[in-house]
Amino acid sequence: MATNPLAPSWLTVPGDANELPAQIWPASTRRDADGVVAIGGVRVTDLKAEFGTPLYVIDEADVRGRAARIRAAFEAAAEAAGTTVTIYYAGKAFLSTEVARWVSDAGLNLDTCSGGELAVALAAGFDPARLGLHGNNKSLAEIDRAVSVGLGTIVIDSEQEIARVAEAAARHGRRQRVRLRVKSGVHSETHEYLATAHEDQKFGVTLGDVERLVADIRTRESLEFVGLHCHNGTQIFGSSGVAESARRLLAVHARLLEQGPVPELNLGGGFGIAYNTGDDATDAWDLAAPIIESVAETCASLGIPVPHLAFEPGRSIVGGAGISLYELGTTKPVEVDAGDGTTATRLYASVDGGMSDNARYALYQAQFSVRLASRRSDAEPAFVRIAGKHCESGDIVVDADYLPADVAPGDLLAVPATGAYCWSLSSRYNYLPRPAVVAVRDGSARVIVRGETEEDLLSHDTGVVR
Questions:
Q1: Residue of 113, 230, 299, 391 marked catalytic
Q2: Average pLDDT in the 121-126 region?
Q3: Of 269, 359, 381, 454, which one has the fewest beta carbons inside 10 Å?
């Protein structure tokens, strides 16, 4: 079958539209003898029957396995370089008390970036000394709470925060560990809105301001400066951008050592995952070694010891371990101008969720994949766009993929790689309740985040007549 002329260049017609490419799906994903997709040993038809749709599904064993693999890869690379490393799970990717416990069990620390995320981590029983706090506009209340509970490290994002954190620490009689977030000027290979290390954006301070601000931090008896922090962006494939940021930061790090200790260097996270067959994500073992080898080489050239290192992966731990499950409601073939005087057909398949549970296409034009999950089909592939049910023309979940041409209302569709930033970015647009999050493992499923009901929606409206 020829490729549809409307298809993006990376998308090819699948030889088998039932195939579940391993690089995109949770590790335990299988089709059973009836053609039904199962994750963690649980069939999606059973998940639909028990929990309804839309539904977020997380493979617990896969999350735990990814966390352990990333930790092992970076610890091995650090040991080879003569140093040590701390891995922080970036909670913004997806955070619940259960997930916090999973990453804690894997030996990871946890990075939060709001009072709410900090509250979830503490509710999970996470050791405050293993927590970090980010944010370009931390409120005084957030800073005060972080200091009061004994938070491990606060990342200072601006000059004004130095005094705010110092005052809170003095008030609580603590010496608060702090890092300083720096803009390295390196642009990683990512969407413009996802890049966070270039100069013209809200995060961090410029390299030229670092020495002056660190000198200020060091004058504060209630603060302990532990090192610099940089985050290049997100959905990063390859190590070159992170390595270049490290080289730039280490040049300043070396000068800071002349005035006092700088025991750590935090190089952030943002490591990418495969969302579709056009993506080629870099394995943790292939990332860790070149990044840390580059750090060691730079340190050797500068004549300084390799500092303790820290990284903050989130998406690469939870993203590929999750799927979104939908029920198909309507299909609509649409003839579209192919641009060469001919037309081509795009099949619009509308599901019972949409941009309220997956805003990433609307925000970043993120390209997801989709598969028919409730049965196997031998029908020819049809070029499809998966749309949501919102009153919005940009309400797209999957921009372009192929499904069997006999896909029909009532079928279950599964979108892989939605474990990160989908629930976190979810909303109540058009008053759709947020879906539940269900963890699956060893043939059983349990709710880890309760789904909302219409009663939940109305509970915030003070004008409701009871």
A1: 391
A2: 98
A3: 454
- Non-local CB neighbours of 86 within 8 Å, separated by 6+ positions: 109, 308, 309, 310, 311
Give the residue among 95, 104, 99, 160 at the shortest CA–CA distance from 129.
104
Task: Give me the amino acid identity at 42.
Answer: V
CB proximity list for 297: less than 8 A, separation 6 or greater: none
Strand partners, 343: 337
For 102, residues 6+ apart whose C-beta sits below 8 A from its C-beta are 60, 63, 64, 67
Known active-site residue 391: yes
Give the model's confidence band at 233: pLDDT under 50 very low, under 70 low, under 90 confident, else very high.
low
Average model confidence (pLDDT) for the chain? 93
Provide mean pLDDT across the span 179-188: 81
| Structural domain spans, the chain | 30-60+320-458, 81-313
What's the whole-number mean pLDDT along residues 229-254? 82
Contact 248, 211 (CB under 8 A): no
> Which residues make Cβ contacts (< 8 Å) with residue 287, sequence separation at least 6?
73, 238, 239, 271
Q: How many other C-beta atoms are found inside a 10 Å radius of the C-beta of residue 368?
A: 23
Q: From its phi and psi, is residue 370 left (phi > 0), alpha (psi between -120 and 50) or beta? A: beta
* Residue 270's pLDDT band (cuts 50, 70, 90): confident
The alpha carbon of 205 is separated from its chain's Cα centroid by a whole number of angstroms, namely 24
Give, in words, the CATH class of 30-60+320-458.
mainly beta
What DSSP string describes 239-273?
A: SHHHHHHHHHHHHHHHHHHTTS---EEEEEE-B--
Asked if residue 296 lies in contact with residue 280, where contact means CB atoms within 8 angstroms, the answer is: no
Please tell me the least confidently modeled range out of 4-18, 30-44, 405-419, 429-443.
4-18
Lowest mean pLDDT: which of 109-113, 152-156, 281-285, 322-326? 281-285
Rounded to whole angstroms, how far apart are CA atoms 153 and 266?
11
CA 285/CA 289 separation, integer angstroms: 6
Cβ–Cβ under 8 Å, residues 156 and 181: yes
Q: Assign domain 81-313 to its CATH superfamily.
A: Alanine racemase (3.20.20.10)
Question: Between helices 159-171 and 210-219, what is the axis angle to 10°?
Answer: 20
